[in-house]
Amino acid sequence: MSDLMPEPGAEAGAPGEPAGPAFPEAPREPTGDPGVDALVERLADVTHLDTEGHVEVYEDVHGGLRETLSALDARPGPPVPSPASHTYDNRS
């Protein structure tokens, strides 16, 4: 079989360890936000879990990223002019 599809029974781990090939970690560049960087690093936890445990990690990371994005939306930004502040003379 190919490298992506090992022979059945190949690479079987010890009891309690996930079976299958170990995937090399993808290089990660820092985002500049320590909270986001910690969430991205948490994704590496799935390599030590059975497939059933992946969902919990993915949901945790997804929730953390959503909270981070929501916090960005809540930050005060520059004032937005109101539509009434721009009156135009509509004479024809």
How are the elements arranged and paired?
Blueprint: H1 34-42, H2 51-74
Which structural traits does this protein have?
2 helices
Briefly note the structural class of the backbone.
mainly alpha
Strand content: under 5%
Shape: elongated
Low-confidence stretches: 5-13
Tell me the major beta sheet. none
Q: Treating each run of at least 4 consecutive H or I residues as one helix, how many helices? A: 2
Summarize the structure.
The protein is mainly alpha-helical.
Describe this entry's structure for a reader.
The protein is an all-alpha fold and 92 residues long. The protein has a domain at 34-72. The protein is built from 2 helices and no strands. The chain starts with 33 loop residues before the first helix and ends in an 18-residue tail after the last helix.
